[in-house]
Specification:
Layout lengths: L1 H27 L2 H15 L7 H31 L5 H29 L5
Helix pairs in contact: 2-3, 3-4
């Protein structure tokens, strides 16, 4: 029983830290609230079209993936900013590629939207 209690405590700590990460990103990264609003609109729009549960899950899941990648991008930027003040080519590369990961994930989500919705009109 002590094992279960210990693990439940660890889960509670992880949930608290995760929530703190979301809140600091929300407060300090303008793109995170923007992506969140885009995802709320996107998820809502999935109910405006006739979709299978799998199509809806794919769109909503990729929308959430954009938020995950944005959180990782924020972590990369914070770690770099902590360790180096000047603009170093490797720091720029890391920040730019993390940003590109967000962009490609968002583009992927848009492509999925198109692949799911456009055929419904033809």
């Amino acid at each position: 029983m002590s094992y279960v209690k210990k693990e439940l405590n660890r889960v509670a700590v992880r949930l608290k830290l995760s929530w703190e990460g979301i809140m600091v990103t929300w407060a300090e990264e303008p793109s995170f609230p923007q992506w969140t609003i885009a995802n709320i609109l996107s998820a809502t729009m999935t109910f405006a079209f006739t979709m299978t549960p799998s199509e809806r899950a794919l769109i909503i899941g990729f929308g959430l993936l954009v938020l995950v990648v944005e959180l990782l991008n924020t972590a990369v930027e914070a770690a770099i900013d902590l360790t180096i003040e000047e603009i170093h080519p490797l720091a720029k590369k890391a920040k730019d590629t993390a940003c590109a990961a967000v962009a490609l994930t968002a583009i992927s989500t848009g492509v999925i939207w198109l692949l799911v919705v456009v055929p419904k009109f033809f």
